[in-house]
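Q: Structure for this?
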Amino acid sequence: MSDSIDTHADVIIVGAGIAGIVAACELGDRGKRVILLDQEPAQFLGGQAHWSLGGLFMIDTPEQRRMGITDSHDLARRDWMGSAQFDRAEDDWPKQWARAYLDFAASEMRPWLHEMGMRWFPIVGWAERGGSGAEGHGNSVPRFHVTWGTGPGVVAPFATRLQAHVAAGRVICRFRHQVSHIIVQAGEVKGVSGEVLAADSAPQGAKTNRQEIGEFEVYAPSVIVASGGIGGNLDLVRKNWPRDRLGAPPENMVAGVPFHVDGRMIPIAEAAGGHVINGDRMWHYTEGLRNWDPIWPNHGIRILPGPSSMWFDALGNRLQAPCLPGFDTLATLKEILKTGYDYSWFVLSQKIIEKEFALSGSEQNPDLTSGKWLEVIRARLMSRGGAPAPVEAFKKHGQDFVVADTLAELVEGMNRIAEVPLEETHLRRQIEARDAQVDNPFAKDAQVIAINAARNYRGDRLIRTAKPHRILERKNGPLIAVRLNILTRKTLGGLQTNLDSQMVGADGAAVPGLFAVGEAAGFGGGGYHGYNALEGTFLGGCLFSGRQAGRSDLIA
Ligand SMILES: Cc1cc2nc3c(=O)[nH]c(=O)nc-3n(C[C@H](O)[C@H](O)[C@H](O)COP(=O)(O)OP(=O)(O)OC[C@H]3O[C@@H](n4cnc5c(N)ncnc54)[C@H](O)[C@@H]3O)c2cc1C
């Protein structure tokens, strides 16, 4: 092989998701020669970030202040540490990353992104409110900043920077290059090797072929692993499942991430000296829908629910606080699985679905993804007698939805898709009890109290929380039930790294020449979330860890 710029560089990056792209941009800015490899075709550029809602965790921003939210670095730190509950010796680097990200999110992050042209939807929201204790998991204030243009709006400014580096010859992109080996000789990183895969014109996000048509080797003294997590590989998710905390892994799950989030690169990095920590920490959702119009295999869509739907386990028993819609992901997951079944139910009214069902994903939010105000106003504020179009489409076509005028018909429909039959009288008693609380300003029902609290925030009252009403009252109907599946998404643990994104081996020593960024690095350090994530911190961690690697003096 000739010593050409096609095969020799200063740095090789494995993975053209957002973390890899950010690292490539920053390295290109420093005049480094970069080879960026990805197993998928060029149209997949941006990886999962393209599909994301583009929500970013930032602290004390002008958007928050305009909404009357008082936030601070100190409050965010307390929220983060209360959520993370770091308790392991190996949490040393993750803790340092958490602190460093908090500093970044409270200072440079927004100006850096703003300068590149990024803007945010003015209503700052909650993707996850958290548990019920002041010292426990959760956000004390809304911090989820949805980017105008959603996921594609996050990728776009970096893709533009990347193209400029490609045009200048500083960055070479090689798609359909699947890395299978990191070449290390006499303790020194030399490059990577793997297979060239056959071209594939599949639409972005779909499953592509793995037909090998050749082999390749490329050389550089530094390799950055930016290969994402494991959420698309359900066997790997089950293998790493935290049985001690959550019980047996679910038999049925839907995939909240594309097929390429396969985890295959992680053991390859370990074989070269990397070290995975916190592999049992993961972030999967409990409100997954089977996509009626799937893009990737077993494609699941997550509902980001407002607070009003009633939540029942598979046996028809109402979940208790903090297992309320949008509150505490892992506590709810545990409660659901305790029943021995891996699904649960939302029961709600048409009025609730119209205001409270947001679907996660750029393609499910065409108005926000368009980045145009007119589209947003049309879809969210001017829609009469219906939820946003993608939600109505699920209601009509989704196999997990039941719509009926009476509770008897609803339960009949639920029982057609249930594994364990439900009794109408059992559900009716619980819904009537809840309904009796809604007119009472001194309600004792924790969920009704939570609904009233949510409506104290202008943002929630405007677009996220339906006016309290009786679910069983006909004028608020029809009634809707949704069978909710467990949906895989984020890998919280990963390759241990120091603050330069350099891998740290099992012996605690830095591994010269090897770096990891994004989800592959547990978003920084090998798991900077600890046990629980505050949302918006996944993209945030990819941006930050990619930047740290790209700016590191350790990459010569
Ligand atoms: C629907 C959805 C909504 C989301 N919403 C949000 C949100 O609002 N806020 C938030 O913070 N986070 C969100 N996330 C999470 C966030 O998008 C991801 O965690 C993040 O984009 C991961 O980026 P990454 O660069 O680390 O990895 P990826 O995007 O997974 O990219 C990794 C790349 O590496 C390539 N690769 C892997 N192995 C190899 C190999 N051996 N050889 C060559 N190439 C390889 C893959 O093909 C892929 O292109 C969402 C995710 C999804 C799917």
